[in-house]
Every structure is written in structure tokens, then in C-alpha cells.
Design goal:
The protein is an alpha+beta fold. It has one domain (about 25-155). The chain is built from 5 helices and 11 strands, in the order H-E-E-E-H-E-E-E-E-H-H-E-E-H-E-E. The strands form 2 sheets. The chain has a 6-stranded mixed sheet. Strands 5-6-2-8-9 form a 5-stranded antiparallel sheet. Strand 8 and strand 9 form a beta hairpin. The longest helix has 18 residues, at about 1-20. The termini are far apart.
Amino acid sequence: MKRLIFTLFIISSTLLLSSCSIFCDFVVINNSNNFLDIQYERKSNELGKGLQYLYLDDLKKGKNEWKELPQDRFEFDQKNSTIKVRLAPNEVFRVEGMDVFYVNKQPDEHFGLKSLSLVGRSGSIKYEGNQVFENFKPEGWDWFTRNATIYTITYK
């Protein structure tokens, strides 16, 4: 009987862990005192996980309650797969979500952005191709997945 219970426990644990996907977020942080214009091109012509933001203070406190970005703060060109966003000071915008399994194994195939540009009062930054993924800095740590929980690019 103990052997049966142990076997069922192992099987159910394996099924539970293998069926879960854990996502990490790739975000742009506007740590300036002015509005920031973000433009990025996706590999597909879909919005991904949607257009969501939160306040920098909430991110620092671990309150990741993402809000939908109002329609008057973004433009989506589905034909060219480009998105333009206006980010207020001290806001965080999620540009991509990715299964942690692919972050270290196959990021080129699974990362959804082709280019990313940031334009603000302090100047502009543009990343293309692999530069986009490579310039996000890992922050936070999940001991269960042994991976970062969020990747950031900060504009100051």
C-alpha cells in the first residue's frame, strides 16, 4: 500500500511539474522625469501578452499587478508588426513574456522582438536583432526555476 501511494505521488508530482510553464517578463523602465517613447517590432504581427504597464514603486515592492495600457497611449501597426508606446515617468512597460525554459537554451528562436528603440529627453537608444535580448538585465531570482523573474532595460 505504501508503495502504491509513493508511486502515485511521484506520478502526480511529475505531471504537475511538467505541465507548468513559468514565464518571466522583459520590461522597459522609465526612470526619468519625462515621458519616454518606446517603439518595437515584433517577429509576429500579434500583440503578445497584451500591452501592460505598472508603476515603478509597485515593481520594487513586488506588486506585479499589471494594468492594460489605455488605447490613447499606444499605436499598433499590425501590417509592419510595430508598436509605439508613450510611457510616463516612473512607469514600467512589459514588452515581452517568455517561458524561462527558453531564456538560457534557445532565446533567439523564442524571443519575440526584432528591434527596440527608446527616445526621451536624455537621448535615444536603439537595439536590433540579438542586441535586443542581450541588453535586458536579469533581476530578481526564483530558486524553484533557478532563473531571473524579470529582465529589464532602464531609461534614465
